[in-house]
Write a structure and sequence with these properties.
It comes from Yoonia tamlensis. InterPro entries: SseB_N. It holds the Pfam family SseB. This is SseB protein N-terminal domain-containing protein. This protein has helices at about 5-15, 20-30, 65-70, 85-90, 110-120, 145-155, 190-205, 220-230, and strands at about 30-35, 45, 50-55, 55-60, 80, 95-100, 110, 135, 165-170, 175-185, 210-215, 230-235, 255. By secondary structure, the protein is of the alpha+beta class. Strands 1, 3, 4, 5, 6 and 7 form a six-stranded mixed sheet that branches. Strands 8, 9, 10, 11 and 12 form a five-stranded mixed sheet that branches.
Length: about 260
């Protein structure tokens, strides 16, 4: 089973559990999806093969190339696109996602309204504020779902920073909370890392504001203190991206719908 299969099974087993549903959609956003195309791509322009099911239009997508091949049963053009990018491309066009139909336990129809909702949820960027830290200690009290969510989310943020530390924080004025400190973040990656941390809270069902984000250089004395008291997360080294002839496989060159 894939991660998406597991998240789907958890959602189906607890239909009233909003957190399980949120986690499924988080996995959907983070997973590379392979979309069947109606014709070969023209440059960076792609046209999804659309199907009408129950009077709604759906793009056919799979979380494994092998699953797409099994369903189609023939050579066919396709594009590999991260779920969040695919949702953004389809949003507002009345097109849903037909996921893993007939080839996986996670087979389901995701209506256009859910695609639009996912894009809106992903667009909630964290607020930028200034606050003076007075004390940093070992973390405590955060729900396990947040810690596990951070571990998974940061594992796919390969190459954006060397590591991160989760710690309890006290601010000037006495306010307390938690802070996630990224060590030696790649210049320009700060917003992406802050968004990733914010998504962990959103898709864990935790109210925003529980955890702040900061960026620290390894040579800063604060980094040494964080190493003593914080919960460490290692971000993996980036792998060389797999780039095939199919549009969308190169993350630096996202395709466009036509």
């Amino acid at each position: 089973m894939t991660d998406l299969d597991t998240a789907h099974a958890a959602m189906e087993a607890a239909p009233e559990d909003d957190t399980a549903r949120l986690r499924f959609y988080e996995h959907l956003a983070d997973t590379e999806l392979f979309m069947l195309l109606g014709a070969e791509a023209e440059g960076d322009q792609i046209a999804p093969e659309l199907f009408e099911i129950e009077d709604q239009r759906f793009a056919l997508v799979f979380d494994r190339e092998e699953r797409l091949a099994e369903f189609v049963g023939r050579a066919a053009p396709y594009a590999g696109i991260p779920g969040r990018g695919l949702a953004q491309m389809l949003a507002g066009q009345g097109i849903g996602l037909a996921l893993n139909l007939e080839v996986a336990p996670s087979a389901m129809l995701i209506p256009a309204e859910a695609v639009d909702w996912l894009v809106q949820t992903l667009s909630h960027a964290p607020d930028e504020t200034e606050a003076r830290l007075t004390e940093i200690n070992a973390p405590g009290g955060l729900p396990e779902a947040v810690v596990l969510g951070l571990d998974r989310k940061l594992a796919i943020a390969a190459g954006l920073a060397k590591s991160a530390y989760l710690a309890a924080a006290t601010y000037e004025g006495g306010a307390t909370g938690h802070v996630l400190a990224f060590i030696d973040a790649v210049p320009g990656a700060e917003q992406a890392l802050a968004n990733a941390a914010s998504e962990v809270l959103t898709f864990s069902g935790i109210e925003a504001g529980v955890m702040d984000v900061m960026f620290v250089r390894a040579a800063d004395p604060l980094a040494a203190h964080l190493a003593k008291v914080g919960l460490r997360f290692d971000l993996p080294e980036p792998e060389k991206p797999h780039v095939s002839g199919a549009p969308g496989m190169d993350p630096a060159k996202p395709p466009k719908l036509r």
